[in-house]
Each structure stands twice: as structure tokens, then as C-alpha cells.
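Troubleshooting log. The previous run stalled partway through. Resubmitting the same three chains, unchanged.
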Amino acid sequence: MFRRLREPADPVTFSFDDQPLRAARGQSLASALLAAGVDTFRSSIVAGEPRGPYCMMGVCFECLLTVDGVRNRQGCLVEVRDGMVVTSQHGACALPAGDAR
Amino acid sequence: MTARILSDAGSIAATYDLAVIGAGPAGLAAAAEASRLGARVLAIDENAAPGGQIYRSVTRNSPRDLPVLGQDYWNGQALADSFLTSDLDYAPGGTVWSLEPATAGDDGRGIRARIGISLNGAACLIDAKAVIIATGAMERPMPVPGWTLPGVMTAGAAQIALKSAAIVPAGRVVLAGCGPLIYLLAAQLLDAGAEIAALLDTTDRRRYPAAVRHLPDFLRSPYFRKGLSLLLKVRRSVPVVSGITALRILGDRKAETIEFHTGHRKRTVAADCVLLHQGIVPNINLASAAGCAIEWNERQRAFQPATDTEGGSSLPGIFVAGDGGGIGGAQHAEVCGRIAAFAALRTIGLAVPETALAALREERRRFAKGRAFLDTLYRPAEAFRAPPDPDTIVCRCEEVRAGTLRGIVALGVPGPNQLKTFVRCGMGPCQGRMCALTVSEIMAAERGTSPAEIGTYRLRAPVKPLRLSEMAAMPPSPSAVLAVTGRSPDEGP
Amino acid sequence: MGMTERFMTKTNISEIAVIGGGLVGASIAWGLARSGLNPLVLDGEDLDPRASRANFALVWVQGKGMGAPHYALWSKASAERWPDFAAALHADTGIDVSLRQRGAFSFALSQGELDTLHAEMKVIDRETDGKAVPYEVLGPGETRDRLPGLGPDVAGSIYSPADGDVNALRLLRALHAALKSKGVDYRARHAVERIEPLADGFRLCGRWGDLFARRIVLAAGLGNAHLAPMVGLAAPLKRSKGQVLVTERCAPFFPYTSATIRQTDEGGVMIGDSEETNTSSTATNQEISAVLAGRAIRVFPALADLNIVRSWTGFRVKSADGLPIYEQSAAHPGAFIALCHSGVTLAANHALVVAPQIAAGALSPDLAPFHSRRFHVPQAA
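Second attempt completed without errors. Output:
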């Protein structure tokens, strides 16, 4: 977990697994989650092990999150926005069933 | 004059004189220089603000907000300002997913490359007469048992968190690895009030004799003065254990303790956050996927694109500048960027001040001083490059362990690409960024040869993932339709 | 042990050398070992073009062999032998290659496409006197009944229960593991550049040196083209480059397979296929990727939001008429060639039929239609 050196001057609110969290406008989603005490973002694909951010620069692909319905977004490259809906990822995604687009 | 900030794929022009990929020191300097010389420039960078990693968020921070960051960091502000006041197109938050050299016999427009860009959820292909790949470096993988646990990150990650979000690890922090950056980070974290339980220094003492040869140059370089004061400051405030020969991170669902060996002695220390670092290496994925020749740099113990003295790659019109072509640091990268800009513009027929170029090459030589000492001294010991414990995960994405890899090497496979197809290491989303070096090191160690002999993964677009729908929405060409369906588009279904 | 020491302890004389360690070479070498021989396998470099690493992993029969009923039936026979082949490989190595033979669809995105596919199936059926694999022609509603989630653009399909797929990369790994378990001498980085026929065998030469083999099997894929004439064989090839996209993993959504979309056992979705005949560059073509992506989404719209994580190209080992070449050299008996672009489908035949025939000294007359004399190429003396 991480702690903030200063309180966000211009905070935004987003949700992670249905929990409301605060963040500074413009910070990355990954850093916002770390600052909120979340260090596990997903389960690994093969063995279901807990995984969290490792490189914070878009290279390791560990910080994968579902953001506003879009899967496998790199949290360290996504800027937090007010009202963002974020969920952790466990297992392979199921494709949306049935009807054509 | 200000840069035009593009926020959707539709506003990117179809053709540019020069495309600069990456907005770290090399990319910023190259783009600004090229636009100064009259070229039509597009700068693309994944992050929302310029600066790359070393100058991360430099346009959003001030010394008042983050006093822990030193003057080296704030030097990036002038560079970013110069870039943002240049006459160029800038696509922040844009991902380059492909770079294709032009096929022979182009239409005479001088196009040397086609670039696939994804911006704000839409993909496009654009043409450029020259390209500068300035995608920088990444941390050398440090595969130790337990390195995949939450709470384990790189030193660079902690720096990025500090610079971009002003956050520091809470709880007990343990830093482990070698090289100047780990001491720099320790000093910054101390200043920010973090609790550093230990700094476990894995510097391989057997490297000292070889490094001593490069000492004179190092003593004359800026690295020495800065490095020494940093070292002393950290050793005064933090328990530093040197001569670490093995590490193991333990914990149930996240990092809880770290076990370390110094020779025969084993100890443990509690840790809530473990920060690993053993140097940085070029991020070669885009250059490799484009087809640039890749070579092994034995002194830096890493793969890099083969380049000439002006950053020209093996592909005409495609240049590499900055740490992505070989590690040299931020100031070295900036000069490389300007040199590559001159060279790129020369190839597209724009006038270039040759005397200025000569001066830049001299400046670059100055910034390269001291590097040899650091590279030699801080080469990680083999145990940290080719993990001995068979259960250590090497490919994090596909969870392939060192023992499995050694078993495949024993089948006699010709190289890392065959090994990759046999056990899927390198086939996950990171496309080998986290495992390629380790795989080559393991194979080299097993076969008693060098990674130069072994080689590394060959990559292809997409260099970063993009959605099928984005790919599908790009305009189809008649020859592509023919290749897929066997019919030309106007033939009808 | 270092590289040099390894070479010094190995023999430079072999009873039978298989040139090429891809799916064709490894299948045949394993079959030879099972027949009691002690083959030597010579394989190339890590980055040599290898169709074995660039295929669609299909065990495919439907639509094959129009104008060549012997090929339609050869493919069918191999698909029927595949379960035994997979079981034997598993017994030797413990590796499960995930063979799945539940049938496959060929999707038509227009009535015209469906009519073309149907016409081909009818011709093949007629030419094989009805012995070709069974199939059904399905309209859009029928196809959708069997495949929920199918897009509205699908105009229909051909379904055949005989088709399937496998994890082809694991298949190659299993074959190599099987070779090791049988003590077969496999040497990578031993590309053969020149073959000199001698009185009692062949000298094989490359950058690594040379060695002698009493008999040889050319299974070098694209490399066969320049090696074949050296031993009185012929392997005229035509250029055929294919491109494939792979997506990130998702939960199973398609329990069958097809030649353009299939889901691997790990969960990634493979999307193909394309053919370029006028380039020798291995680069992937993004415009082709765009067309492939577009068609895949028309078939299964739910794929739209999946990320493409990889794409690659491969050059099919396609003879001048697209059919395999199996032959023993008349001018230099003891030199065999096995060449095809369906190395996955035909792996079972190669291991269980062709290899024992080579071991016994001659190919069966049933394989005569695959002889290169059909190209009317003058044989080297």
C-alpha cells in the first residue's frame, strides 16, 4: 500500500469493485488504487494467483483492470475520471452472450 | 506558438515528414529540434503528459509540491516547455501498435514507414518519411522467487508513483538490487518520510576488479559526485546489507517477508513493500517488430537495436534515439534525440547544420563518460540473471518457471523462439518484455555460450494490444480484401 | 557441457537422416524410431521460416482435394488416424495435444460464398464416389441454431463432423519430447545446405560441417525446393503467405472449429486466413489484419472488444498444385521427400503410414499420385 504526501487539491470519485474511492484528478488509476490501499488488481490467468502493479509504466501488463466495461486496460496508463467504474479481473472474460451488434 | 494537441485519431494527418515515438528526453528533444528545422512532425506518446519516465509529470509538478525530487528532474521542465511551444502535432495517450518499413518501390513520395496508432479508442495507419523510435528503457527483469506477489514492484515504479501521484509506499519498505538508481530512490523515499527497513545490495563483488579499469573516467564524470553523496546519505540512515547472493520474497497473498543470503548466512526481514532494481535495459519491442536488426551489448548485458553513430537503424529512414538504443541516461538521451533529428531530416532532403551536428556528437561523448564503470560494476550476478531455483517464475504472463525452461533447453531447441512456442513464455500480453532477457540468459548459461549466440524473441505487430473492432474499423484496401477473400472488392460477394 | 564438446562426442555417420525438424520431419522421425530405426534429425536455425510455428492447427478435411480425389481421401484417412496418433504421443511423453474432433463450420458471408463452398463439396463427393467426408449445407437460421451468438451477416455454412483441431505448438513440442524419449539424435542449428549423392549414401553439408547418411528424408519445408534437385527429386513450390491474428484469452464460446476462426485450448481466439502470393517479406500487413478482424466480427460480433495480442505470418509449403509430394528418388534410391502444407492434418499419416513405408524401403503404390512426375519436371540425372 501507498500513502499520499499531500491531499488531492481537486479530488475525483471513482468506484472499484463497487467501493467508492477518492483520487486526485489526472493521476493514474493504478496509483489511485495503491493510494487507497488496494494492492491486488486481479488473479493471474493460469494459476489464479493474486497480482498487482509491478512496473507502473505500461511494460509489465500486471495492472490489468476492467474500466467502464472495457477489459484488460493497463491501470498505470489510464487517468482517473470522475464516475469511472473499475472492477478487478478474475479468470478469462466471458464474451457478451447472444445478440448481434 | 504551441504544439497542436490531438485527441482523436481522425485529427492525425495522413502523412508527416517525421514521426517521433516517445516523449521522454530523446523524443522531446528530437521533435522540438526537427520542427525548428522546418519539418512537419508528429510526436506520439502513451502517457497523458510529456516527460517519459525520468521526467514523469514534470509539467504537472513544482519544486514546492515535491521538494524530494532533485535538480536533475526539474531540468526536464525546460525540455518539455520547448517541446510544447514547438510547431508540431502531439498525440498524448496515443499508442503505437505497429511500425512497418515501406516496401520497395514506393510511389515517389519518399515514405519510409507506415505507423499504426491507436488514440482514444480508434486506430489509424499513417505514413512518415522518417521515424525516430524513442521508446526508452525499462527495468531489467529481476526474477527472484516471490517476485510476482502483490506489494513487489520495481524501483522505477516507486519513482513513477512519487512523481506522477506524490505517493510513497506505506509500511516497511525493503529495496533490493544494485545500481545507482536504487540509492537515489532510497534517498528520495527517506526525504518523503518512508520507512526503509533495509537496502539489500546485490552488487556482485567479483565485478570490482573489472570495473576498476573504468574508474578514472568515472571519477571525472558527473555520476561520481552525485553518486558518492547519495551513497553516504543512504548508508547513514538505512540498514544496508551488501554482498547479497540470493533473495526470496514470501507471503500468503502479498509480500510479507524477504529472505536474503549473504554467502552462507540466511536472514529475513519483514516487508510490506519490496522494490526491486538491477539496472535498466532498452525497450526493443517496437524496433524488433519493425524488423530492425537487434544486437547484443555485452558491456550493458542487454539487447539493443543495431544503430550507426547518428542513431540510424538497419532500416532506411528509421532511427533510434535515447536509452532505447543503449543506456546512457537522460542528458545523453536528449543529445541523441537532437542528433537523430538532424540525421532523419538529412535523409528526407531537408538542410541540416552539419557543424551543429559535430558539436552535438562531442557533447554526447561527454555525457557517455563514466558509463563504462557503472555498466561493469553493476552487472548483476548470474544467479540474478538466470534464476537457479526451478520454481522461480520467469514468464509472469504465462507463469512459466525456470525449471520448465531448462527442460525445454535440454530438448536441444535451436533458440528462444522455438522455446517460446513450446512453452508459451513470451506469448502473453507483455510480449516478452518481462522475460526475454531472462530466457536468453538461462539458455546461454545452459549452453555455455553468450546471449549474443542465443538471440532473442522475434516480435511482430501489434506491439501493444488493440481491440479487434479498432483494427476492423480501419479502411480496407483492395489488395487486402483480395488476400483474405480471394476476390477483389468490386467483384461483389 | 559446451557446444564444441557436444559435437565431438556425436557420430558423423547415420543410417537415416531426416532433414528438417518441423511437424513433417519430426512426425516421420518418430515414426521411423517406432519402426525400429535410429534416425538422425537435422534442424535449422531458431529464426528460419518454420511453417510448424505459423499454422492454424487444424485437422481439416472438408473442401480438400477438388480435382484430386486421392488427396481428399488421404486427408480423411489421416483425420481418422489422429486419435491413435495422439494417444501414442501421449503414451510416449505424457503430453496431451488437446485433439478436438467435434466438427467444423465453413462460414459464408454471402449467398455467393455459400454457393461456391457447396459446389466444391459436391465436386469432391462425386470425384471420390461418395467416399469423401460427410457434410451438411446449413442456412443462416440453422447455423445460428447450432452457434448462438452468430452474427446476422452469416448467410450460411458448411458443417462437417470429420474436422477438428489440435494444439499444434504443443504437438511440435510433444514430437520433440517423443524423439528425446526414444533417444533420437536431434541436432538444431544443423541446416543442410548441400547434399552430395555418393555410391552408398549421401554426404550432407552445412556451415556446421558435414556427415554421411545411408538414407535421407527431405522434410525441410521451403528448403526442399533447393535440396530436392540435388538428389534427383523435384519440389516446385508456389509462394503462399498467410497471416493470423490471435486475441487475448476468453471463456470458451465456440465448441467447434473453422478455418477462419478457432479458439485454442488456452482460450485465445485465432483469426485467419489470408493468402499473398507476390511477397517474400515476413512482415505482417496491417491492412490484411483489418480485413481479417472485420470478417471475424461479422461472424461472431461478441469478439469486437477482445484485444488482438499477437499476429504472425507464415509461408505455406505449397507445391505447384497445392498437393503433397511423396517420392523416393529413382536416380538416387534411398533419398525420400515428404512435402505438404497440411503438416498438422497429415501428421498422423506421416508418423503411422509414411514413416513405416520409408523404414521398409519403399513408398506404397497408393502414394504414386503424389509423385512429382505430375509436374512434368525433368529429373536431374
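Takeaways: Residues 118 and 446 of chain B are 41 Å apart (CA to CA). The longest strand of chain B covers residues 122-133.
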